[in-house]
Amino acid sequence: MDSRKLALRCRELADDKKAENLVILDLRKLSTVADYFVIASGTSEPHLRAIVDEIEEKIRAEAGLRPRATDGTVKTNWVVLDYFDVVVHVMRPDVREFYDLEGLWNDAPRVRGRRTAAAPRKKVRPAAA
């Protein structure tokens, strides 16, 4: 599985567990650290754990890949899964806002990918005035 497909699959798996504010940053022209960052937010420790477990289990089953390293814990509100060319960051919204990876890597283009038919996004209607 190439790094773009892996990043898209990680985002899809996080979305399956209702992760919020999913973003993929393309770092290929900016850094040798990784090709892509996948960034996702979870609302609680159990939610973070569910997202991380889903990604680890499905990527292992589907592609035979395990993270080279895992850093952080759900108790620290930020877990990093390092798949060499793809680094997945799963964090609570307040931690995400504080560390602002999207701002730090603001030159990185965001990767757009097609959403699966099984997981359409609901449109939010503005409240009536």
User: Architecture, according to CATH?
Assistant: 2-Layer Sandwich
Structural class: alpha+beta
Number of domains: 1
SSE order, one letter for each helix or strand:
HEEHEEEHH
What do we call the CATH topology? Beta Polymerase, domain 2
Beta strand %: 15-25%
Please explain how this structure is put together.
By secondary structure, this protein is α+β, with helices and mostly antiparallel strands. The protein has one domain (3-104): Beta Polymerase, domain 2. 34% of the residues lie in helices and 22% in strands. It is built from 4 helices and 5 strands; from the N terminus they run H-E-E-H-E-E-E-H-H. A hairpin with a 2-residue loop joins strand 4 and strand 5 (86-91). Helix 1 (3-16) crosses helix 2. The chain starts with a helix and ends in a 25-residue tail after the last helix. Mean pLDDT is 90; it is low at 116-126.
Summarize it.
With 129 residues, the chain is α+β, with helices and mostly antiparallel strands. Helices cover 34% and strands 22% of the residues.
Set out the fold topology.
Layout (H helix, E strand, L loop, with lengths): L2 H14 L3 E7 L9 E6 L3 H19 L5 E3 L6 E6 L2 E6 L1 H7 L1 H4 L25
Parallel strand pairs: 2-5
Antiparallel strand pairs: 1-2, 3-4, 4-5
Helix pairs in contact: 1-2
Any key phrases for this structure?
129 residues; 22% strand; globular; Beta Polymerase, domain 2; alpha+beta
